[in-house]
Amino acid sequence: MNQYNQYKTMLQKAADINYASAVLQWDQETYMPENGASMRARQLATLAGYAHELSTDKHLGVLLNELIGDVKLDGQQQANIRHSLKDYKQRAKYPAAFVEEMSLAISKAFNSWHEAKTKNDFKLFQPDLEKLVDLKLREADLLGYKEHPYDALLDQYEHGLTVAQIKPLFADVRNQLVDFVKQITPMKVDSSFMHLHYPKNEQWDFGMKLLADMGYDFKAGRQDMSSHPFTTNFNSHDVRVTTRIDENNLHEMIWSTIHEGGHALYEQGLLLENYGLPMGEAVSLGIHESQSRLWENNVGRSLNYWKHYYPIIQKIFTSQLGNVDLNTFYKAMNEVKPSFIRTNADELTYHFHIMIRFEIEVQLMEQKVKVSELPELWNALYKEYLGIDVPSVSQGVLQDVHWSHGSLGYFPTYSIGSFYAAQFFASAKKQIPGLENQLATGNYSELLQWLRTNIHVHGKLYSADELCNRITGESLNFKYFMDYAKEKYLGMK
Amino acid sequence: MNQYNQYKTMLQKAADINYASAVLQWDQETYMPENGASMRARQLATLAGYAHELSTDKHLGVLLNELIGDVKLDGQQQANIRHSLKDYKQRAKYPAAFVEEMSLAISKAFNSWHEAKTKNDFKLFQPDLEKLVDLKLREADLLGYKEHPYDALLDQYEHGLTVAQIKPLFADVRNQLVDFVKQITPMKVDSSFMHLHYPKNEQWDFGMKLLADMGYDFKAGRQDMSSHPFTTNFNSHDVRVTTRIDENNLHEMIWSTIHEGGHALYEQGLLLENYGLPMGEAVSLGIHESQSRLWENNVGRSLNYWKHYYPIIQKIFTSQLGNVDLNTFYKAMNEVKPSFIRTNADELTYHFHIMIRFEIEVQLMEQKVKVSELPELWNALYKEYLGIDVPSVSQGVLQDVHWSHGSLGYFPTYSIGSFYAAQFFASAKKQIPGLENQLATGNYSELLQWLRTNIHVHGKLYSADELCNRITGESLNFKYFMDYAKEKYLGMK
């Protein structure tokens, strides 16, 4: 076997293990009986051990160092090697003792976060979060960085992203979006009908139709229920989504279904022949989120979308929606209103939630704020950007699971994703003649084809920035999101 | 870590991998979208590779050889070591090249069997089956045997079972059961109501009730649908069953549910503390089958059982069963009638099907019959024992998947299981005062407790024969099955 094939075999074997773990995790979130949890944890740990062994195997390092820059390889193969070598070098920077310490700290922090949130007592979480922040500072040192320790963390989720790049984006959010939201709120809409009783089965069937219409391939995936919606994939021919249904809140199922559907279309669009290789994987979290947000916001929250679907859903829920006209429904689906909880936020104020987390994480990594001061800082920032008084730490600084997982640097990818989505969608509108009309008639095939050709099939061949420039002619620019927001919300009747 | 703990760690790690595979297989049979199959196969192959590495690890061999007979170990620990060393030695007898050759031959044979069955053409399967029989002869030589090459194969499914032991059992079947069936058939019962339309949801709910009433713990398991019913377990706190529902045949769901429920109760009754160790595993296939058959036949097909459930099911399916009395229903559920297909057979003629397969397998291993002669031999034996003319090879020699899997020696465990069940049940009736009355009122807790205490908790501590002697005071004896059959069928009105 030649060296490239040896490399490929090793990577695909690691993929087998990682995807087997993903099946076990999917099962855990969907169908596993409650007593199955304890042994499932050790089964996952054993698989993780094998995946780690494979991905840090010395022979893999030797192969990668010999293959890097090999001109006999084609462009895709060279890109695979580049990415794999970068990943390999990153992993090699972690001493085994550090990995173990981090893993223990995360497991401890996750438990104490859960208890702290339940009991509304930040102090229960504080020491474990302090430990994690300390470990994250050490991790940044291990990984190395040019300008800012936070850059080392950002890079893990969004390769190449830096504090220096994010700051101007959030400066735009602060300077333009905060004022814009003040301008358009409070919105005049009675959205109480969104919280009538919408029976589960009818919601489920409607969501399945939305997924199928988007182009989600049910021969290569399925939808199930879980307490937190997610997308997972075991290869590009088996990409699964979950949703959550609240019978008293129509938002819940609709947005989670379209959002996860967008993630899933990306995974289904990766090429099976690149299984286990970087060319068979998504570019970054930000680009992944751009796909979910494009479908959720730019498509799903548009008037065009509901021109098609409102008559359908109105017919399903006649007693709840029979007397509500399209325009009222559309406004209710898009009500902008500052709130405490990130995951329930509208598509505009959502970014204030992210900005706050970003500012806090930067300060933590600069050691300018102590963990003990976070509740106060959190509440002050919510007052400043959203104009609201946070009622409790459970609904404030403790609301998200991310920090307890040690995932500092993750949050910004959510906003980046929305901003990429707006920029991509602006290009799609220019490049696909009649797109608006297609959307208004429930026809998404050209849009999906456009996403497939421009984004999905490439895997990691281009970086996020390269991809953005290829598609839109420029790097990420907040302007497109702002233009989208203005056109939409100022145009609302 | 002391040596015993090292051994335990290694075995439990192998269990993690094997149970992870089991989750992937369960998913494959229940929820996997159709395009997921190709990559799932390679993921399973990778896991199987790791499991094989672990179970043939030289260090494991060293540990086992040092621990065997270590008097500092307690009885359970010593039994674990004994079993593991036996397994280890067995595995060591297989050269890697042979394992690979067998694996390829099975994969080829499975495909050609499937095609041959579909096309009703034995010739398509014949060369691959010839290859498999040849490999099985070599396998018997590799494993070694005292009297008969078939003994080496039997031993893999039912440790210690030999041709010399089975022959007298099937001689009894031939001498006693064949005549008995002639005596009681044709039975006078119009069972056409069993094939009316029984809607799926109501059947499902009834089956779930049967499982719950048996004592199946839904916190440590779940039921799903699959095309072939099965039981699988990922540890004793996560034991899952599947069932199949035919809306035009009430037999299908009821027998598969109770049967798999019986298997599952055994697995749920194993001790979690023995996870991954022989003491946490079932004795043998025969003893496993005894649990499913005891619930299916001795309990589920009894008049007492239906004294309790018939009023319930009659109320669910009023239009189908409203005019059918208990006795007619009971007779229909127990109709004895020679037929072609093993899996649809009644509890008596079932053993003729097994006896035929046993005789054929023995002759194959004795090289007294050629594979090409099997269809003819098959049809002749069906004529002799069941008095019927087999209409086609699809409904004859090609009906079962087992041979295409290379599973020669497996079939006898089905009959052995039923005979053990009858013998165990006879003891249970003696040892549990009022058992008949409990069964007639839907109370199975004492019976389950009896099975737990006498069989389930022990894992592999006792051999099948030891267990049988401990419980019933003698070794396996066909008499109990024959007594059961006579009492039941001669007592029918």
Q: What attributes does this structure have?
A:
homodimer; 493 residues; mainly alpha; Neurolysin, domain 3; three-stranded mixed β-sheet; 3 strands
Please explain how this structure is put together.
2 copies of one chain form a homodimer. A 3-stranded mixed beta sheet of chain A has the order 1-3-2. In chain A, 63% of the residues lie in helices and 3% in strands. Chain A is globular. Chain A folds into 2 domains: 90 residues; 374 residues, Neurolysin, domain 3. Chain A is mainly α and 493 residues long. In chain A, α6 crosses α7. The model of chain A has no long low-confidence stretch (mean pLDDT 96). The first copy, chain A, is built from 21 helices and 3 strands. In chain A, a hairpin with a 2-residue loop joins β2 and β3. Chains A and B meet through α1 and α2 of A and α1 and α2 of B.
In short:
The structure is a homodimer of 493-residue chains. Chain A has 493 residues and is an all-alpha fold.
Task: Produce the secondary structure layout.
The structure is a homodimer of 493-residue chains.
Chain A: H1 3-30, H2 37-55, H3 58-67, H4 75-92, H5 96-119, H6 126-143, H7 149-157, H8 163-184, H9 200-214, E1 223-225, E2 231-235, E3 238-243, H10 250-269, H11 285-299, H12 303-316, H13 318-321, H14 326-333, H15 350-365, H16 374-386, H17 412-431, H18 435-440, H19 445-454, H20 464-472, H21 479-490
Parallel strand pairs in A: 1-3
Antiparallel strand pairs in A: 2-3
State the total count of DSSP E strands of chain A: 3
Average pLDDT taken over every residue of chain A? 96
Note the beta-strand portion of chain A: under 5%
Number of helices of chain A: 21
Order of helices and strands of chain A: HHHHHHHHHEEEHHHHHHHHHHHH
Distance between the termini of chain A: 66 Å
Are there runs of chain A of 5+ residues with pLDDT below 50, and where? none
Bin the helical content of chain A: 55-70%
The CATH architecture of the largest domain in chain A comes to: Orthogonal Bundle
Largest beta-sheet characterization of chain A: 3 strands, mixed
Shape of chain A: globular
* Largest interchain contact: A-B, 39 and 39 residues
Structural class computed from helices and strand pairing of chain A: mainly alpha
Into how many domains do the coordinates of chain A divide?
2
Kindly provide the name of the CATH class of the largest domain in chain A.
Mainly Alpha
CATH topology of the largest domain in chain A: Neurolysin, domain 3
Radius of gyration of chain A: 23 Å
Strand order of the largest sheet of chain A: 1-3-2
Assembly context of the chains: homodimer
